[in-house]
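Researcher: I'm comparing several assemblies side by side, and this is the next one on my list. It has 967 residues spread over two chains. Same procedure as the others: predict the full complex and return the structure.
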Amino acid sequence: MTNYIPIINILILILFSFVMMLFKDKKKIKYISIGSNLVVFLLSIFLMVYSISREVITLSIGNPNNLLGIEFYIGKSESVVTLVFTFVMLMILWFSNFALEKEVPENRISFFYVLINILLASLLGVIYSNDLFNSYVFIEVSTLSACGIIILKDKKENIKATVKYLIMSTIGSGLVLMAIAYIYSITGHLNISLIHETIVGNYQYHENAVLIILGLFTIGLGIKSAVFPLHSWLPDAHSSAPTPASAALSALVIKVYVFMLMKVLFRMFNYEIVNSFIIMDIILLLGSMGMIFGSIMAIMQKELKRMVAYSSVAQMGYIVFGIGLGTVTGTAIAIYHIIGHAVTKSSLFLISGLFIEKTGSKKIEDLKGIGREMPLTLGLFTLGAFSMVGIPILPGFISKWYLSLTCIEVGRVPLILIILASSLLNVLYYFPIVINGYFGNDNLDGKVYNSKKVEFIRILPIVLLVLAMMIIGGISFNLIELFNI
Amino acid sequence: MNFAVLLPILIPIISGFIVGLSKPAYNRRNTIVISTTIINLFLVVYIVLFKNNTLFHMVKINELLNLYLMPDNIGKTFAILVSALWIFTTFYSIDYMGKGDGLNKFFMFYLITEGVTLGIAFSGNLITLYLFYELLTLSTFPLVIEKGSEEALRAGKKYLIYSFFGATMVLFGIILLFSQTQNLSFVPGGVVGILVYDNKNLYLMVYLLLFLGFGVKAALVPFHSWLPSAMVAPTPVSALLHAVAVVKSGIFALGRMTYFVLGWRVIDFTGGNRYTLILVLLTILMGSFLAIHQENLKRRLAYSTISQLGYVMLALVIFEDSAYVGGFLHMLFHATVKITLFFCVGAIMHYEKKTELSEIAGIGKRMPKTMISFSVASFCLIGIPPTNGFVSKWFLAIGGLDQGNYLIPIILLLSAFFTAAYLIPVISTAFFKGDPSKEVEVSEPKNFMLVPIILLAAINIILGFFPNWLINTIQATANKLF
C-alpha cells in the first residue's frame, strides 16, 4: 500500500482541484484546498519514514518495458524533498488564507487554490518520475499553472511578466523535448534507468550526440530554473505575482527543474560520463556567475520583492555550483540547499508581503523603522537573512561550508573565494534592511511601537517555516548523508 | 555539574533579554544589570577555582559542528578580566547614560555582549570560538550605533563590513584547515603537528588568512580604520570595546590560533611569522605616530590602542617564552589602563562637555581626582618603572633580544617615547595650562563614575608593584607551550 502513496498524493491533489471548481463558496474551496494539502503532507511524512527504512520505492505504471516505461522512483532524497515541499506549500496556503483577498480580485481567488493544487501535483510528479515522457508532461503542467498564479493579479505588469515567462519557458521546454528526442533515437528508451543501462556501454560511439543532449538539457532546464544568464524572466515574474504565489514560485517551482537536471546528469548518465564532458565546467561556471552577479544585482534593487527575487537567482547559483562540482557530496549539498532554501526563501517572501501590505509601499527605503512597528516580523526576517549570510548552524552556513570542503576535495581551492565573496555580498543587501529597520534615530522617529502588529494566527506559518529552517540546519549532517541521486 | 560552565554565558544573555523585553523602570533595570554582572563575576570565580579542564558539550551535530566549552588557564584569566571590568563599566555607564528612553535596548545588548565575550573566553575549539566571534559582531553593533545619528550609522556600517570581511577570511582559513586536520580543538602546541610537512604552502596560507582575519578585530594595520570611527559610540562602550570586549577578543582568538590550533612550531616552519612581524611592527609605530596628531581626546586614545595592541601581538609573532609572558601581561594591563583612561575622558565629556585637547586647559583643578587617575594610568601606559606597563614591556623586549632581533627593543623604546609624546601633553594641559591665579570650583563626577575610576587606577598601581603571581601563572602556561 505504501508503495502507492506517490500516485495517491498526485491523484488527491488533482482530483480535489477539480472538485473545488464545483463549489462557488470561497470558504469551502479554502477548506478543501488546505484539507487536501494537509492529507498530502501527512502521507508524505509516512512516505519519508517508510523510504528511509528501505532503499528505494519504485512504482511502474503499465508495463515498464513498453514504449513509454512510465515509472515512479522514490529514493531518500525524493521523499525528503517531497516532505519539505508539501510542508512549505501548506504554510503558504495557510498564509494566503488571510492575505490573498488583499492582492487578488474577488472572482479570481478560487482559481488560485485550484491552480496551487495542480501546481503541487505537477511538481511532485517531476520529482517522482523516472521517465522522460512523464517528466516532460509534468514540467509542462507546472509551467502553465505557474503562469496562472502569476497572472491572477490582472495588472499590466503581471501580464507582461507572464508573457515573458511563458515565452522563455516554452523555449526551455522545446530544448528539453529536442533532447528527449535525441536520447530516444540513440537508445530507444524513455525510462531513465533503461536509458542508463543502454548508454553506459556505448556512449563513446555517440560522443557528440551525448554532448548535445547534455547541453540541451542544461540550457532547457536552466531557463526554467533561472540559472544565471537565463534568469531574466524571474525577477519580473516573482516580484509582480501575489505574495503567496511568489513564495511558491521562488521556493518550490524553480527547484524541481534543477532536481530533474540532477536526475538527467547523474542517474540517466553517471558521474564518470558527465565528468568527461566539458558540460560540468560550464555548469560550474554558470553557478559561480549566478552566485556573484545575482547578489550584485540584488544590491542594486530598490524594491523589496525584486531584491528577494534576485537573491533567489544567487541561491540557485549555489545549487548549480554544487551540481557542477560533479561529485556525490556536491550533489548531496545541492539537494540540501534545495530544501534549506525552500523554507528560507518562502518565509522571506511571505514576510516581504506583510511589510508591503502594512506599509503600503514596495520600496526598500520605506522600510526604515519597521523594526519598531513590526518587531517580531522583522525578527523573523533577520533570522532568514542570517541564514542567507551564513551564520553558523543555519542552513545557509552548512551549504557554504560543505561546498567549500567539496571544492578542496576536488582540488579547486580558488572556488572557495567565490563562495565567500557571495556570502559577503549577501550581507550587503540583507543587513541594511535589518539595520535601518531596528536602529537609527532618524529612522525610528515618529514610529509607534508595535503599531503595525500582525495577528499571530497570520504570522504563525512564517514562525513554523523559520523553525523548520533551524531544524534543517540542526540535523544537516544526517540529512546530507541521506541524499543521493 | 559541568553545566556550570555554561552559566556565565547564559545568565547575562537571558537577563539581557529580560531587560530588553520587559522594559523595566530605571531603578529596577539598574538592579537587574548590576546584580547580573556581580553574580557573573562570582560564577566565573567559581569556575576558575573548581573547574579544571571540564568539558561541556553544547551541541554536537557532527565532527565539524561540535560546539563545546573548556575553560583552561588562559580562558579563565581572560574571563576574570572580562567579568571584573564589566562590573566597573556597569556602574560607570549607569551614570553616563543618564535616564533617557530607549536605554533598555542599550543595556540588553550590553549584557548580551558580556555573555558572548565569556563564550569566546571559554570556547573549547575553533568553531565554537568562531560562532561566538560572529555573535560578538552582531551584539556590539547596536552598542556602536547607540546614538542613532547619521555618523553613528556610517561608523556602524564600517564596523560591520570590516568585521564580516575579517570573519570571512577566518572562515576560509578554518575550511582549509579542517579539510586537512579534521580537528579544530584547542591543544597546547597545536593540532597540526607533522602534517605540516605534507603541504607547507597550504598551512602558510591558512596561517596568513587566520592571522589577517582575526587581526581585523585586533585592529591590525591595515585593517585598523574601523576602530577610530567606532569612537562615535558612548564612552563606556568605547572603553569596553577597547579594553576587553572586541579588540581583546581578536587578540585572544589570535593567541588561540597561534599557540593552540596551528602551534608555533608549525608557523615557524612555514615562516609565516616573518610577514606578520612586519605588520605588527608597523601597527606599533603607526598607531602611536598617528595618535600624536589627534586633537580629539577619544580619537587620541583610539590610535593609542592600535599601537598598544601591536605590543600584544608581538608575543604572537616572536615565539619566545618571555615574549609570550610579556604579551599576555600587556593584554591584561592594557585592559585596565585603557579603561581608566577612557573613563576619565568620558567623565570630562559628560560633565564638562569638552572633547578636544585645547579645551581642557586647567581642568586638573576642577576635577583633580579624575585627572590624577588619568596621570597614573598614563604613566603605566608609557611604562615608567615601577608601573605595570614597564613589567610587560620589559618581558617583551627580553623576548625580542632572546631571538637576537635587536630591532624589536629599539622599536619598543621608540614607541614608548611616542606614547609619552601623546599622553604627557594631555596631563600638562590639564594641570599647567590656563590661568594659574583663577579660582576654580572643584566639581568631581558623581560617585557612580568616580569610584570605578579611582579603583581602577589603584588596581593599576597594585598590579605594577605585585605582578609576580600573575607572571607565575602565565609562566606556567608558557612552560607547557615552549
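Model: For your comparison table: Chain A has a mean pLDDT of 87.
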